[in-house]
Input
Amino acid sequence: MTVHSRTGHSGTEAERGAQRPVRRNRRAGKLPGRQDWSTWPHYQAAAAGFRGYWYPVCYSSQLTGKPKQVTLLGEKIVLIRDAGTAYALVDRCPHRGVPLSEGSQQFPGTISCPYHGWTFDLASGDLVAAITDGPQSPICGKVTQPTYEVAERLGMVWVFVGDGEEPPPIDEQLPEELVDNEAVLGSRMQPREGNWRFACENGYDEGHAKYLHRTSLWRLFKSMPVWNETRIVRRGRWIYRVQENQHWTADFPGLGRWDSQAWWKLKPPTTTGNIGNTGSHREVDPVIAAQEFPGFASVSMPGVLRIAYPSFIHYEFYVPVDAGNHLYVGVMADFRKGTAALPFYVKYLTFVRWLFHGQFSAQDKWMVELTDAPPERLYRPDDSLLRWRKLAEEITSERHARLRAEGIEPS
Output
């Protein structure tokens, strides 16, 4: 039997079948990679953050005598200011579980639950009155609401979440140069989706800025390297990315040449530096130069990023809200004093805040929201991430050993 096809070709059924393309199964891919973070068990368990640290939670100007709720490391906390001092308590009335942040201040130095008027001393957490049970209520003196240590630095309210240990002085956790030197600050706080670890790893990541941020308006007139030769150096509680060689253009075999240069951009520097990641003709600020940072990018626990530029330092604090959300806190510090600091204010308020803490940072926000790891397949520049995870693991192990020696079992 002969069959005529619609194209005019003829042949037997067997011949036609032989002419059909063979349907191939979808390729399985080559994705062995890392399936979990069990290499760093403390880091893997820290989806909601590391305990034993101070975290910024709001601006000082935002805290008044009206209770304010924040979530930190998965814990609901009520903040309130009384006679100029900031206080923090667990935001759950032990009577029926109503948030104290829905209550108000009926007496100086206290906060009262909106449901039955249970009233707690702000400093101690002691139940000092149960308004609806009268002045002689027998429940008073039998209940103490857990409290948190609070401090105020850099124009922000900081809360310590630990396991019952005495908190270290907050200045020991802040970047040293911010404690020892006068600075003017421009900052932004923004609630963001995504795990805090993704945000921290993005900030310290070696590879992303050269590609992701090449389209940012902040980098409009500056070329970005294609790739770097980098090593990680630890100094004290910080680890630094040290740029040993920057490659501004590259030829990819079989593909062609690629770079981010253009006629309107500044020419790349001829030498490799470690103040800023694109090179600059500007003179380095004396305070920044005095720090002798081995690398321009550094990170420390519990998730503090520091990027040193010639005229300012940029910090990012990744504050864990819960496993799926974090608070982004970006701080730009200029170390000039008096009237010499006025140009910084003008620049920051007119365009830097919008360009740097806005559009530039929004690209990081986008990636953090999309990140889904593990599983993951890392590449050579991810040594920065591996070293950060190792730092977090080592410091957390040391803290747990220290707590156990004091008779405290870490959460």
